[in-house]
Design a protein that fits this description.
The protein is about 65% helix and about 0% strand. By secondary structure, the chain is mainly alpha-helical. It has a single domain (about 1-25, about 35-150), classed as Globins (Globin-like, Orthogonal Bundle). Helix 3 (about 40-60) crosses helix 4.
């Protein structure tokens, strides 16, 4: 039942992201605002960003410990799931191939400080790829909604 709620919550989040993007599009004229997915450059651009971002996580002295012992195949699965996640929540055509964030991260005791490290790596990567601030903010707002499902320890 809880897993079903999480799947519905994720689907709702993805739908809201798409609706918010579409709602901000102009209603008249030739040019409609593109989805965040399109403005980020589509799947290939998202893929490159996630690959760079994941490498930073794997190499980080703090959060990298969470990936210790992970096979190359498992790391590739991690990257692919994150590519699909970013794709879907930004209005792209991908399908979710991972479990909800609360299930995936539940019981790991992830600290707020670790979540912040991950966010900082993502911002660094977005800056490296020269993603405009507007798109960065939209993406980070979406990622921020996952925080309650990931962070279990607030005061460390």
């Amino acid at each position: 039942m809880n897993s079903q709620k999480n799947h519905l919550r994720f689907a709702l989040l993805a739908s809201l992201a798409l609706v918010a993007t579409l709602a901000s599009a102009p209603t008249s004229g030739w040019a409609q605002e593109k989805t965040l997915y399109e403005r980020l450059g589509g799947y290939d651009a998202i893929s490159a960003v996630v690959d760079d971002f994941a490498a930073k996580l794997f190499d980080d002295p703090v959060v990298g410990a969470r990936f210790f012992g992970m096979s190359d195949d498992s790391r590739e699965g991690f990257r692919q799931k994150n590519k699909n996640l970013v794709c879907i929540v930004t209005g792209g055509p991908c399908k979710v191939i991972s479990r909800p964030a609360a299930v995936t991260h539940g019981g790991l005791g992830i600290k707020a400080s670790e979540f912040n490290i991950v966010v900082n790596h993502l911002v660094d990567t977005l800056n490296k790829f020269k993603v405009p601030k507007k798109e960065q903010k939209e993406l980070m707002d979406i990622i921020g909604t996952l925080r309650p499902d990931i962070v279990e320890v607030e005061n460390m």
